[in-house]
Write a structure and sequence with these properties.
The protein has 376 residues and is α+β, with helices and mostly antiparallel strands. It has helices spanning 3-15, 30-44, 50-57, 65-74, 80-87, 114-117, 134-157, 165-169, 177-192, 295-307, 311-323, 332-349, 355-375; strands at residues 194-195, 204-207, 212-217, 220-235, 241-257, 264-272. It is 45% helix and 14% strand. Strand 4 and strand 5 (241-257) form a beta hairpin. Helix 11 packs antiparallel against helix 12 (332-349).
Length: 376
Amino acid sequence: MSVIGKYWKHISVRLSRELPEEKAPALWSKSDTTLFSVKMHSKIGKTISHATIRRIFKDGQSGSDETRNMFAQYYDYPTYGHYIEENIKKKSKNHSVLLLFIGSLFLLGSYSLYTILNPTLPLPSKTTQQFDTKEDSLSIKSTINQSIQYQFASFKAIPNYEPYIDTLKAYYQDGSSAYLEIIDILKGRTGHCWIINNNPNSSKAFLIGDILIDSIRNNQAFVSTKEYWKLDWFGCYSQECEYIYEANNDQQYILTKEASSRKWKVISNIFTGNKFRATPRYIHCDSISDKSSNLLITKESSKKAIEHGGLDLALKIMECYYRKETTPKFPNKLRLLIAEKNDLLRAVNTDKIDQLRFENQKKLLFEKVLVFLDDI
């Protein structure tokens, strides 16, 4: 295993202890990631997105230097290089180094749902305030309103969403989990060539009722809303509706008041929909080049992805391998498997089949992919 692989394995062990119920980060839900992200923001002023957690701990990607440093800093090391030197290179002498992290964890206080979800947030050193000024309340509500409008507007602009990036940063903190998740959607939908600006298209988003400010403490605000979201994603290539999302979401926002601008910005957004959806991930070949460098590695990486439930990743690894000019001709059987996967996703995401049928057909597709891997 590479040093970076050992680093992430080390971090994974520690992260599994960050939640009330110990759980490996590869198995974290979006709400699990948000819970940890709030803790990270409280300690180092940065957040992590669920997409990044999945890429590193489920798909086995190495992450950028910046991402590796963030986790090292969370555990009180200036860089991941310092972390590796102290915890991995010296680990051969004493395997118990993994257990050194104990840390002092305190309660923020008993307020709304977040004291249940976040019992380990650090106690602030300064005196807390239950509510700040009326100006803060108005500013928070305005930020929420504008964030909804511009998030939807950026979706509607796909594939030409770039002009909306600066506007999004006015309401979402750059680098926060909420901001990165929107960017991930914008890039992913663009990569899939899914749009909501075709005609006709009934996509829309709006608030239902009032914005409820649950608490404002130490320049962090906790806000609840109910929102209606309808997104009819239309495929440019298939010329069919690929994905329908329609739900009355109960949403919980966390905002922070930036020290420099004194503006309130969203850093986290947890929401619950009411329908099962299987969102296909857009994976660029450059991000998995180490998994498709030759046929043997391609087969091993694809099988490992399947073992972890990564159908999208397994097929993408094979696709990236066969897209290279130096590789054999792209197999028709692989084209058919990719098409079958896309048809299956389209069916469940437009309510043509239910979740149970989707899961059963997905298992059959996994078997077909494994047979194909054995044959090549």
